[in-house]
Request: fold
Amino acid sequence: GFLSNRSEGNQARDAEYRELLSERIAEAIVEQRYGPGVYHASPQVAAAQPQQPASTGSEPTPPAVHH
Reply:
């Protein structure tokens, strides 16, 4: 639907409807980019998945040596 739709335009005056609408838009964006089911993954599942470090295209900096 579109907010130019008279019925949805009237619903958009309600804060709860706007919250639901923004939630659905965010879900659609995330699932389009990362795949279905990603947006509502439980915190336990997200925490259990290993984090991949961001690739910068360079070698990691070795730790500083203090003398």
The chain has three helices and no strands.
